[in-house]
Write a structure and sequence with these properties.
The structure holds two protein chains of two kinds. By secondary structure, chain A is of the alpha/beta class. Chain A folds into two domains: about 170 residues, Periplasmic binding protein-like II (D-Maltodextrin-Binding Protein, domain 2); about 210 residues, 3-Layer(aba) Sandwich (D-Maltodextrin-Binding Protein, domain 2), CATH 3.40.190. Chain A is about 50% helix and about 15% strand. Chain A contains 18 helices and nine strands. In chain A, strands 1, 2, 3, 4, 5, 6, 7, 8 and 9 form a nine-stranded mixed β-sheet that branches. By secondary structure, chain B is mainly alpha-helical. Helices cover about 70% and strands about 5% of the residues of chain B. In chain B, helix 5 runs parallel beside helix 8, helix 5 packs across helix 9 and helix 7 crosses helix 12. The N terminus of chain B is likely disordered. Classes of the chains: A alpha/beta, B mainly alpha. Chains A and B meet through helix 4, helix 5 and helix 17 of A and strand 3 and strand 4 of B.
C-alpha cells in the first residue's frame, strides 16, 4: 500500500508542476492590469469599499452597475464587498466600531440604520445633491423620526404579491383571482384536483409566515398607510378587528399548504414551486430574478386578493435597501460622488433592469423589461402603497413587534395559536413598552 | 490506576483531578532531591500558556466583567449585579432564560441517556475479541463526528423532510418534537466520541482479568458488568462531564437548522441561541453586549456548577484501580 503511494508521489508532484506552469486566467490579474493601465494615473485613484448584505447581487454590481460608474469617474474605484444577510448587521456593527468598515454602507430600513446614524457612524446626507428625486415615503425609512435629517439614499423597494405557475393554471382552467373568495375557490379547485400543492409556503423559518403571509395580505385589512400610522399614533390597537381578520385569513391558508409545512423551510418552498410541484407562491418581488432562472414554466403574478366589501387595493411596497456613507471614511468627497450617482435616472435604470424585482424609489421614469417585474410595478398605479407595519418605531422595544409577528404568524398557520389570541398577544407586547398604546 | 488520558479533557479538570487524588500521589516528585531550575520547562509551557491566556482566559474574564456593566447614555457604566437581577426578574427575559435552560437540560439529557449508553454498547461490541473488521466499523462509526455540523444538519433535514424525505410528520416543525429531534441528530453525529473513549479503556483491560473471570464461570454479561464496568467507571464520569459541558455550550446545530429564533415558538431555544440573540440582536431586535455577557456568565456558572458537582460528587468518590 505504502509502496504504491510512494510511486504515485512523484507523478502527482509532476502533475502539480505542470499545472502551475499552465496558462492561468486569474481574474484578479486582469483587474490589476486594468487599474494600472488607466493612463498611468493610478496613483490618484481612490478605492471605495461598499458593504452590503446582498451577496446574491455580487456579479451584477461588479459586471453591470459599477463599471458604468467607473466610466464616468475614472479616479474612483468601488468594490462591492457583501456579507451573508443574516450576519450583516452584527458584522457591520463590529466593523464600524472597530474602524474597519467600508466607505459606503448599504442601509437596512428604519431603526437599524437610524441607530447607526445617532451613534455617528453614518454621515448626514440631507443636503446631498439629487436627494429631491425621492418622495417622503421613500425617504422615511432613512430619515430621523421628524423627517428633518436624511442619512441614506433610498435604493430599492420590494413589493409583495402572489406568483403562480401559468401552466398549472391553464391545465386546471383557472384565472388569477381578484377577491379573497375567488382566491379560496381557486385553491380549493387545485386541492380537489390533487396533483399540485395549492399554496407553497412553510413555517419552519417563521419569517415567511409574517412577511409573505401577514404583511402581504394585511394592508388590505388595515387600509395600508392609514392603519400603519394609526397603530403608531395609538388610534388603533393590534387586537382590533382588521388585525384579527388578517390573522384569520392567514390561518385559513393552512389547509392549502403542502403536508408537513410546519417543517418546510424557505429554500424548500422555493424549490417546490420552481420544480412545478405547487401552483401559487406567496412572494416578494425579490424572487423574480432567481425564479426566472430556475423555473422552466411561465409565471404570472397577482396582487393580494381583496377581502369582501373592499374596493381599494393596498400593497406592501416595502422600502428595503438604501445606501449611505461611513462617517469615518477617508474619502468623503468620492463617496458623496458615488451617492449622488445613485440618485440619478441612469442608476435607477441600470439597477431596476439588472435586478428585476427590486424597484427604484426615485421619481425618474424607469422602463423595466421583465414582464413579471412590470406586473408587480403596475400595482403601484392602481393600488395604495404602504410598508410593513412593524418596521417603523414599533420594533424599538422589548418585545420587538417584528420578531413577535414572525412567531405569532407561524403559530397561527401551524394552528397552535388562535387568530384572536395572536392579535391579543401582539397588542400586549406593544402595551408593555410603547406609550401611545398603553 | 485507570485515569483516562484523553485529549478531549478540559484542561482544568485534568490538573485538578491529579492534585485531588491525594497527597500520596503528589508526594512522588516532591520527595526527589532538589534540582536546579529547569528553564526549558518554562520555554515549553510559555507559548501555550500565553496563547491560552490571550484567547481564552482574558476574554472569559473580560466577559464576566462586562456583565457588571450597562450602557447609560451611551457609556458602559458599572451597575453591579443589576443585569442579573433584570435577567432573572424581568417577565420576558426570565421566561426566555428559563425556557432556554430547561431546553438545554433536555438536550443534555438526550445525549446522556441515549448517546453515552449506545456509545458504551458500541465500544463493548468493538472490543469483543471475536469481532472481524473492527477497524472498518470503528472508522464508520466515527466518521459523522468529523463532519461539519452544517452538513449533518442539512442531510438530516432532507432525510426527515415531509417533502423530500422519508418521514411524513414534520418532526422539526412541531414544538413537541423539534428539540428531541435536534438532540438525536446531534447524538448521531457525536456518538463516536464516547465510543472511542470507552473503547480505549476497554481494550486496555488486561486479558488476565477476563480470562480469570471466565475460568471462574462468568459469562460475557457477568464479565462485562462485574469486571469491566467497574474498571471504566472513572471514564463514564469523564464522558458524562464532557457531554454536559459540550451540550450546555451547544449552539451550532440548532442555529444551522432552526436559525437564531430556534422555533417553533422557541421550542428549541437553548442558552447558546438565546445568548446569540441577546448579544448580537436579531433582525430588528437590537443586540446588547452587556446583557449578552450576562447570559454568557449564567451559562458559565451553570457549567461550573455542573462540573463541580461532578468533581465533588463523583470523581473523588469513584474508586479507580491500578492495573
Amino acid at each position: 500500500m505504502s509502496n504504491r503511494l510512494g510511486r504515485l508521489a512523484p507523478a502527482v508532484g509532476a502533475l502539480l508542476v505542470l499545472a502551475a506552469c499552465g496558462e492561468s486566467a486569474d481574474p484578479r490579474e486582469e483587474t490589476d492590469a486594468a487599474g494600472g493601465d488607466d493612463g498611468g494615473g493610478s496613483g490618484d485613484q481612490v478605492t471605495l469599499v461598499m458593504e452590503s448584505w446582498r451577496n446574491d447581487d455580487l456579479a451584477i454590481w461588479e459586471d453591470v452597475i459599477l463599471p458604468a460608474f467607473h466610466e464616468q469617474h475614472p479616479n474612483i474605484r468601488v468594490t462591492f464587498q457583501p456579507t451573508a444577510p443574516d450576519e450583516y448587521d452584527a458584522a457591520l456593527d463590529a466593523k464600524l466600531s472597530g474602524g474597519t468598515a467600508g466607505d459606503l454602507i448599504t442601509c437596512r430600513p428604519f431603526d437599524v440604520s437610524l441607530r447607526l446614524y445617532e451613534q455617528g457612524r453614518l454621515a448626514p446626507l440631507t443636503d446631498l445633491e439629487g436627494m429631491d428625486a425621492f418622495g417622503d415615503v421613500a425617504r422615511a425609512a432613512w430619515s430621523t423620526d421628524d423627517g428633518a435629517e436624511a442619512f441614506c439614499v433610498p435604493m430599492a423597494s420590494v413589493i409583495h404579491g402572489f406568483l403562480y405557475n401559468t401552466e398549472a393554471f391553464d391545465e386546471l382552467g383557472l384565472a388569477a383571482p381578484e377577491t379573497e373568495e375567488q382566491f379560496h375557490d381557486l385553491l380549493g379547485q387545485i386541492a380537489a384536483d390533487g396533483s399540485y400543492a395549492p399554496l407553497v409556503m412553510g413555517t419552519a423559518d417563521q419569517w415567511e409566515a409574517a412577511t409573505m403571509g401577514l404583511q402581504n395580505i394585511g394592508p388590505n385589512y388595515w387600509n395600508g398607510e392609514e392603519g400603519r400610522q394609526a397603530l403608531i399614533e395609538g388610534a388603533e390597537r393590534f387586537d382590533d378587528e382588521p388585525y384579527v381578520a388578517a390573522f384569520t385569513e392567514l390561518a385559513s391558508w393552512a389547509e392549502f399548504l403542502p403536508s408537513g409545512y410546519e417543517s418546510l423551510t424557505y429554500p424548500d418552498a422555493q424549490n417546490m414551486f420552481t420544480l412545478g410541484r405547487g401552483v401559487v407562491f406567496p412572494a416578494g418581488s425579490w424572487e423574480i430574478a432567481l425564479f426566472n432562472e430556475q423555473a422552466d414554466f411561465e409565471m404570472g403574478a397577482f396582487a393580494p386578493p381583496l377581502p369582501e366589501g373592499q374596493d381599494t387595493c393596498y400593497i406592501s411596497d416595502h422600502t428595503d435597501i438604501g445606501v449611505g456613507m461611513n462617517a469615518a471614511t477617508e474619502h468623503p468627497d468620492e463617496a458623496r460622488a458615488f451617492l449622488e450617482w445613485t440618485t440619478t435616472a441612469e442608476f435607477a435604470d441600470l439597477y431596476a433592469n439588472a435586478l428585476p424585482g427590486f424597484f427604484p424609489m426615485s421619481d425618474h421614469d424607469v422602463e423595466v423589461d421583465d414582464p413579471l417585474a412590470q406586473e408587480f410595478l403596475s400595482w403601484r398605479d392602481r393600488c395604495e402603497s404602504t410598508i410593513r407595519n412593524s418596521y417603523q418605531i414599533l420594533s424599538r422595544g422589548e418585545p420587538n413587534l417584528e420578531n413577535q409577528l414572525w412567531d405569532l404568524s407561524a403559530q397561527v398557520v401551524n394552528g397552535t395559536v388562535q387568530p384572536a389570541d395572536a392579535a391579543a398577544q401582539a397588542q400586549s407586547g406593544l402595551e408593555r413598552w410603547y406609550e401611545p398604546q398603553q | 490506576m485507570t485515569r483516562p488520558r484523553t485529549s478531549a479533557l478540559p484542561e482544568g479538570i485534568d490538573t485538578e483531578a491529579t492534585t485531588a487524588s491525594g497527597p500520596a500521589v503528589a508526594a512522588g516528585p516532591a520527595a526527589r532531591p532538589r534540582r536546579r531550575f529547569r528553564t526549558h520547562v518554562v520555554v515549553f509551557i510559555a507559548p501555550a500558556a500565553a496563547i491560552y491566556t490571550i484567547f481564552m482566559v482574558y476574554p472569559l474574564l473580560d466577559s464576566l466583567r462586562l456583565s457588571l456593566y450597562a450602557p447609560r447614555d451611551g457609556v458602559h457604566t458599572f451597575v453591579g449585579l443589576d443585569n442579573f437581577v433584570h435577567l432573572l426578574s424581568d417577565d420576558l427575559l426570565s421566561e426566555a432564560f428559563w425556557n432556554a435552560v430547561w431546553n438545554n437540560l433536555v438536550f443534555f439529557a438526550v445525549h446522556f441517556f441515549v448517546q453515552n449508553p449506545i456509545g458504551l454498547l458500541l465500544a463493548a461490541l468493538l472490543a469483543a475479541p471475536t469481532l472481524k473488521g473492527r477497524g472498518t466499523y470503528r472508522t464508520l462509526l466515527f466518521i459523522p463526528t468529523t463532519l461539519s455540523v452544517v452538513i449533518v444538519g442539512f442531510i438530516w433535514q432532507l432525510i426527515i423532510s415531509p417533502v423530500w424525505g422519508f418521514v411524513d410528520t414534520p418532526l422539526l416543525g412541531q414544538s413537541s418534537t423539534a428539540l428531541v429531534t435536534l438532540a438525536l441528530m446531534s447524538v448521531w453525529q457525536y456518538i463516536g466520541i464516547p465510543m472511542i473513549l470507552f473503547y480505549a479503556v476497554l481494550i486496555s483491560i488486561p486479558d488476565e482479568l477476563t480470562e480469570a473471570a471466565t475460568v471462574d464461570g462468568a459469562g460475557g454479561w457477568t464479565t462485562f458488568w462485574r469486571v469491566k464496568f467497574p474498571l471504566i467507571l472513572p471514564t463514564v464520569g469523564i464522558v458524562s462531564v464532557v457531554t454536559y459541558v459540550a451540550n450546555m455550550n451547544a449552539f451550532d446545530l440548532i442555529y444551522t437548522v432552526k436559525g437564531a429564533l430556534a422555533g417553533p415558538d422557541f421550542a428549541s431555544d437553548i442558552m447558546g441561541t438565546l445568548f446569540f440573540r441577546t448579544f448580537f440582536g436579531f433582525q430588528l431586535q437590537q443586540g446588547s453586549s452587556t446583557m449578552g455577557a450576562t447570559v454568557a456568565t449564567m451559562m458559565f456558572l451553570l457549567i461550573l456548577a455542573g462540573v463541580l458537582l461532578y468533581f465533588y460528587g463523583w470523581q473523588r468518590r469513584v474508586e479507580s484501580y491500578e492495573l
